[in-house]
Design a protein that fits this description.
17% of the residues are buried. A hairpin with a 7-residue loop joins strand 3 and strand 4. About 4% of the residues have low confidence. 15% of the residues lie in helices and 43% in strands. It is built from one helix and eight strands, in the order αββββββββ. This is NlpE N-terminal domain-containing protein. Pfam families: NlpE. Keywords: Signal.
Length: 143
């Protein structure tokens, strides 16, 4: 009986790891206009260990400041294709990492495996909620 329970726990643990592999990876989005004079870039990496790193870059001609870099890091978890982000004030913030992703949520969007049509659906994260005002409703695509 003990062996059966241990085997069952190992199998369920492996299935949970396989589930997070689907979400883990690099995501990015670049918005540019005026022949690369104005650029906004979002880069997010979801690591398999449940941590993430984020980089936001903005270069606007005539902007104040003309170039801006912002960083954030923390932990992520998933439930029903919604990824929830959190940042620990003690461990995840320093002089470089200043963005607070606590209470941020993003929906994982991909083509339904039952959809056999030729329709192309890019795998993406669509941010639904965030205390970072410019992150709401942003789509970033899996690389």
């Amino acid at each position: 009986m003990k062996h059966f329970i241990i085997t069952l726990l190992l199998i369920s643990g492996l299935s949970l790891t396989a589930q997070s592999n689907q979400f883990a990876g690099d995501y990015s989005r670049t918005l540019s206009a005026d022949e690369e004079k104005n650029i906004i870039e979002y880069k997010l990496t979801l690591n398999q260990d449940g941590t993430f790193v984020f980089h936001y870059y903005r270069k606007l001609q005539g902007g104040t400041p003309p170039e801006e870099n912002k960083y954030g890091k923390g932990k992520w978890s998933v439930k029903d294709n919604v990824i929830t982000f959190s940042s620990d004030k003690k461990d995840d913030f320093d002089a470089k990492n200043t963005l607070d992703f606590t209470n941020s949520k993003a929906r994982f969007v991909t083509k339904n495996p039952r959809d056999k049509s030729d329709k192309v659906v890019k795998t993406k994260l669509q941010f639904l909620e965030s205390e970072i005002p410019w992150m709401k409703r942003i789509d970033i695509f899996k690389v």
